[in-house]
Amino acid sequence: xxxxxxxxxxxxxxxxxxxxxxxxxxxxxxxxxxxxxxxxxxxxxxxxxxxxxxxxxxxxxxxxxxxxxxxxxxxxxxxxxxxxxxxxxxxxxxxxxxxxxxxxxxxxxxxxxxxxxxxxxxxxxxxxxxxxxxxxxxxxx
Length: 141
Hints:
Radius of gyration: 15 Å
Order of helices and strands: EHHHEEEHEH
CATH architecture: 3-Layer(aba) Sandwich
CATH topology: Aminopeptidase
Number of strands: 5
Distance between the termini: 47 Å
CATH class: Alpha Beta
CATH superfamily: Gcn5-related N-acetyltransferase (GNAT)
């Protein structure tokens, strides 16, 4: 099976991914995504995608930034493989694609957040070499 890997940088392209992103987070409607993307793109947000034919079957938002404890890093954000394509190696291919981008951009590491109750994702990320280092705390304002 042939897969096409792309980096999306245009809002119009990214909006097409709303249905796939909703498989992870139901609040990411096309309208919500449209409202968020201008600010995100202004801060370097892009989407790494896997396509099979004309269908997007995998996506990870990506940002590159720097923190004192890590140095330059690439953050994977809202990583989703289409439900109909899970457990077929797509997540591994997407992670490899994003890892190559991080290396090309001189990053020292990859980071990501995963929901606490998503043990299947935790197991997958650990199989890809990620290590749990702490909690991501939130405070609504």
